Amino acid sequence: MTEQEPPKITFPCDDYVIKVVGDVHEGFRLFVHSVLVQYDEQLTEASYSVNVSRNGRFESLTVRMRIEHEDHLKALFEMLKVDERVRMVL
Question: Cα separation of 50 and 62, whole Å?
Answer without folding.
Answer: 7
